[in-house]
Amino acid sequence: MTLFKRSKLLWFSLLGFALLATLLQANAYAAHPNLVITTSDVDKMREAVTQPGRFTDEYKKVRARVDEQISQPIVVPVPKDGGGGYTHERHKKNYQIMYDAGLIYQISQERKYADFVRDMLLEYANLYPTLDVHPKRKVKAQNPGKLFWQSLNEAMWLVYTIQAYDLIYPALSTSSAEKIEQDLLTPVAEFLSVGQPSTFNKVHNHGTWATAGVGMTGYVLDKPEWVEIALYDLEKSGKGGFLKQLEMLFSPQGYYNEGPYYQRFAMLPFVTFGKAIENNEPDRDIFGYRDGVLQKAIDTTIQLSYNGLFFPINDAIKSKGTDTIELVHAVTIAYGRTGDTGYLDIAREQDQIILSGDGLKVANALDKGLATAYDFRSVAFGDGHDGKQGALVIMRSDINGEQALLFKPAAQGLGHGHFDKLTWQFYDLGNEIVSDYGAARFLNVEAKYGGRYLPENESYAKQTIAHNTVVVDEASHFNGNVERANQHAPTLAFFETNQYGSVASAHIDTAYDGVDMSRLLALVTLPELQQTIAIDIFDVVSDAEHQYDLPLYYQGQFIDSNFPLDAHTNTLSALGDNNGYQHLWLQAQSQPSEGLAKVTWLNDNGRFYTQTSVVNGDEQFLFTQLGANDPNFNLRNEKAVIRRVAGQKRHQFVSVLEPHGEYNPSKEYTLGAISRISDVSLSEQEALILVTLDFGEVKYLVAVNTATSADSDTEQSFNYQNLSYSLKGRLATYVIENNQE
Fold first, then answer.
1. Chain centre distance of CA 413
2. What pLDDT, on the 0 to 100 scale, is given for residue 711?
3. What are the backbone angles phi and psi of residue 256, rounded to the nearest 5°?
4. Looking at the structure, do residues 441 and 556 belong to the same domain, yes or no?
5. Rg, Å, the chain Cα set
6. 442 and 432: one domain?
7. Residue 3: is its pLDDT beyond 50?
8. Termini Cα distance of the chain
9. What are the Heparinase II/III-like C-terminal domain coordinates in residue numbering (predicted)?
10. Predicted confidence (pLDDT) at residue 359 exceeds the cutoff of 80
């Protein structure tokens, strides 16, 4: 061969490689599936289902469910109903069954499953171009969908449907693929992006779902431009989009600004799109972005729960827990990435295996018994994108049953936030003891206001009187103004956990003009008594006189009080006219004399609880039940005790919550139904707060160092009743009689 021929051959070879490289670049996302599940995952799953185990069991269960569905006619109805109505639920069920059928097709390689998804997508492709916005669209402030009443549900539909399309793509003819892409997937993606820029560019969970759906569609349809706008917003300015949402919606610790309920909800688009980005563009290092905030967010979501249910702050449905599908996906991806066997403990409780490569890893590890106990911690999660807009504090103990105290000196939480700065909740033996109402909503129950948030969500659930925090002059914090509330957050003064328990303090001076509020909460362990108590000190200071109300919402049956009650047994009236007071029946009232005021109730967990309050004779105790001015019976009939002082510039509310005793109706015995606390006193020595608790057989001194400069290594000596003590850090307890810590 001549030199010229060799050169010519080399030139054509180089040209061929260049053309191939260009084609590969232009079709960077050509392999299918290429989102959460890859072709490599599929090979492993196909092998796995030939062997016994959890993964095979789940595969058989899903396949049986899909077989039942594909034996029935395909139904793609014209949208008509709001959330919870037939057409809403039918379209929701359709995207779920398409997703499942796509998985079964990939694993089984049986064409009937792909054909079912194809045929349903073609039905949607015929319907979608004919649709206007949904006839039951929500209020004007909410962008409507076409298939659903709000575009949020449309984005959820796309997140699932694009994965289903990705899974069956290899089985499609060119004509079918073109029809589905041109008449369905592209119009939906454009409707959710350029069609609704205010939502798509919004830093909010609605924006997260929209960007995830459009970005994943970009990967599947080989439209890199869609991926870019999903990441950086429609103008690719970086002021919105998925990455901005990761920056602004999460604190550096992974706490989501809207609270646990919406953190759970948003986790699915975050981790699903994140996994798709990792599989398609690993160089972006999406799970390493912002110091691994996405991975931290998964762990934080789990931490924001007690006994399998999320802490119900802000607009929360109280029945939502760690077994929700969003967190199942998140835990699956977290274990697949890290191999942390603590996640297996949560996966075991969830008892749901995801049919994916990561799901296979979880199933195999559980089959081998590799799960270790998940480490639920006492922790303060900083709020806001910088972690400096207050915090959500969780205190935990496991003496004589698992307890958790939730303290909320957190940011407002956008439109889903409640006006409840410095509120708290308490849990014990698996139950809610000191409670929060959560959201006034019957999710997807169309008969109850179309499944939307009820009017009482605004008139009661969001109002400050619905929460366990101080209300000034019967007006809600920030006068119920969300925009103003979002601009101000409490300051967490300190948080510490040690062998004596946990303690936190926070304050805010912007909830009311001219009023400073600060609260200290401590969950203290008393090993000699084998129990835990909660200490609550709430200070309110103003230059003007005000009325101060401090509610305590309790779950259980009222047992007794150590002061007489003036009960209203024939007629009831509402406690007030607005700001939530109009929904509270005043059932009884009293003004205990100076000393200790005790209220005891029995929870369904069989344990008694006594709230012992230190009073000066100037506090009224108002016993209320929810349900006034509620003609449609939308509200639960929950009970509260409200401590009230009027015409005061400053006031200090001091109380101790004491779990005690046992009631066993099955075996017909009752133990320890009476509070053991006989005396509570509080004193201060400069920055030290000293609380004495007399339980009769043993007397405790609890010391808290509130100094700004104190930390876990700070040691301070002090004298109390002519005895010397030493305190290291923020919190310590001492048995007074023998001066031993």
1. 11
2. 83
3. -90, 130
4. yes
5. 29
6. yes
7. no
8. 95
9. 384-649
10. yes
Same domain, 372 and 392: no
416 given a catalytic annotation: yes
Cβ contacts of residue 558 below 8 Å, gap of 6+? 599, 600, 601, 623, 639
In this predicted model, what pLDDT tens digit does every residue of 656-674 receive, in sequence order?
999 999 999 999 999 999 9
Tell me the residue type at 265.
F
| Torsional class of 668: left (φ above 0), alpha (ψ -120 to 50), beta (otherwise) | left
The strand ranges marked E within 2-129 are: none
Region of 4 please: left (phi>0), alpha (psi -120 to 50) or beta.
alpha
**Domain for residue 242, yes or no?**
no
CA 336 to chain centre: 22
Identify the three-state secondary structure at position 623. Answer: strand
* Inter-residue contact 297 to 243 (CB < 8 Å): no
Mean pLDDT of 211-227: 98
Listed in sequence order, the residues at least 6 apart from 191 whose beta carbon sits closer than 8 Å to its beta carbon are: 146, 151, 154
Contact 507, 490 (CB under 8 A): yes
Set 416, 418, 467, 507: catalytic member: 416
> Domain of 741?
678-741
- Tell me: do 51 and 178 sit in the same domain: yes
Q: Which of 105, 169, 219, 262 is catalytic?
A: 262
Concerning whether 262 is annotated as a catalytic residue, the answer is yes
**117 and 194, same domain (yes or no):** yes
Q: Record the tokens describing residue 375, joined without a space.
A: 């480490």
Q: Convert the pLDDT of each residue in 245-296 to its tens digit.
A: 999 999 999 999 999 999 999 999 999 999 999 999 999 999 999 999 999 9
What is the distance between the alpha carbons of residues 711 and 495, in angstroms, rounded to a whole number? Answer: 9
Examine the domain organization and report whether 86 and 200 are in the same domain.
yes
C-beta separation of 305 from 377 below 8 A: no
- How does pLDDT run across 337-356, given as a tens digit for each residue? 999 999 999 999 999 999 99
Whether residue 604 lies inside any domain: the answer is: yes
Number of domains observed in the structure of the chain = 5
C-alpha count within 13 angstroms, C-beta hemisphere, residue 605: 19
Are 348 and 416 part of one and the same domain? no
Peptide bond into 312 cis (omega under 30): no
Q: Quick one: how far is CA 16 from the chain centroid?
A: 54
Domain ends where: 178, 197, 230?
230
* Tens digit of each residue's pLDDT (9 = 90 or more) over 484-514: 999 999 999 999 999 999 999 999 999 999 9
587-625 tens-digit pLDDT? 999 999 999 999 999 999 999 999 999 999 999 999 999
pLDDT of res. 13: 45
- Are the beta carbons of 597 and 561 closer than 8 angstroms? yes
What does the pLDDT look like over 67-95, one tens digit per residue? 999 999 999 999 998 888 899 999 999 99
Q: Say which CATH number the domain at 289 has.
A: 1.50.10.100
Task: List pLDDT tens digits, range 558-582.
Answer: 999 999 999 999 999 999 999 999 9
Residue 728 domain flag: yes
Whether residues 368 and 390 fall in one domain: no
Q: From the CB of residue 73, how many other CB atoms can be counted at a distance below 10 Å?
A: 4
**Token duo for residue 440:** 């006034």
